Amino acid sequence: MKLDKFDKQILRTLQQNATISMAELSVHVGLSHTPCWRRVKRLESEGIILRKVTLLSNKKLNLGVSVFIYVSLKNHDEGALNKFESAVQDIDEIVECHTTSGDKDYLLKVVVESIEEYEHLLKSKLTHLPNVDHLSSTFALKQVKYTTELPIKG
């Protein structure tokens, strides 16, 4: 789908404030209400706008420990990969899971209250994920940059 300058401005604006009213959005991007609404609906139906969410503060919710975990699997057949990917869906503390290139198979991001809670999670769940050969954990010391906005050019 080809995006024009209005589509891109709509996307940039919604990334910054998903609760903006359609009237405010249309003024902000320089379109009248109905064409702006049609564009938003088209962006949603095309799957460019996936959903609108509320972002929460990890620290205010006492979830200040972020852990990145490289995972190496024993087997790499489709069934083994699917079992692992399915199992990570059931662990709430895993907030991201990415397949990776190179000598590691997956990168997980885990958010927990404390190092002790992470140790418990590691022993009780993570080491028991299907087909896991090796886990390597790295604790984030400080978040230097955080954005939920994709860099839409143009």
UniProtKB/TrEMBL annotation:
Residues of the HTH asnC-type domain: 3-64
A Gene Ontology molecular function term of the record: sequence-specific DNA binding
Keywords: DNA-binding, Transcription, Transcription regulation
One Pfam family from the record: HTH_24
Coiled-coil regions listed: none
UniProt entry tagged with the keyword Transcription regulation: yes
GO CC annotation: cytosol
The keyword Chloroplast belongs to this UniProt entry's keyword annotation: no
PROSITE patterns recorded: HTH_ASNC_1, HTH_ASNC_2
Gene3D superfamilies given in the database record: 3.30.70.920, Winged helix-like DNA-binding domain superfamily/Winged helix DNA-binding domain
Protein name: Lrp/AsnC family transcriptional regulator
